[in-house]
């Protein structure tokens, strides 16, 4: 659980240290702005930046019923973050599975990624795509 939040916690700690340093130097506005930047980074690197994750078994059952794709991801992955934000509201049309939260999900990714836990990995029906093109995936979500 803590591993998922490590980068976000690190950003908050760094932001507080930088802000305190600036405040003691009499630069309260600069310290406040820098703290805000670090807090935004912490939010982006946290699990909160993604739709509510489900476990692999639940995602597979739901995908079989509704035909929506499954996206395997992990917190702190900048490729996952880029994919997530390029999708915007369309991200809600996929089932998001955090591989750090679910060992079965990590095993599913290793099975299609040559033994590696390369994310994002998207599964559409019986097709798995490791690190998909964002425009292609956006189009797949629009058509579903």
Number of strands: 4
Task: Output the number of helix runs.
Answer: 6
Mean pLDDT: 89
Beta percentage is 5-15%
Any descriptors?
single chain; 144 residues; alpha+beta; four-stranded mixed sheet; 6 helices
Describe the structure.
The chain starts with a helix and ends with a helix. Helix content is 57%, strand content 11%. The chain is built from 6 helices and 4 strands. By secondary structure, the chain is an alpha+beta fold. A 4-stranded mixed sheet has the order 2-1-3-4. Helix 4 links the parallel strand 1 (70-73) and strand 2 (95-98).
Question: Could you give a quick summary of the protein structure above?
Answer:
With 144 residues, this protein is an alpha+beta fold.
Outline the secondary-structure elements.
Elements: H1 2-24, H2 28-45, H3 56-66, E1 70-73, H4 78-87, E2 95-98, H5 103-112, E3 121-124, E4 127-130, H6 134-143
Parallel strand pairs: 1-2
Antiparallel strand pairs: 1-3, 3-4
Helix pairs in contact: 1-2, 4-6
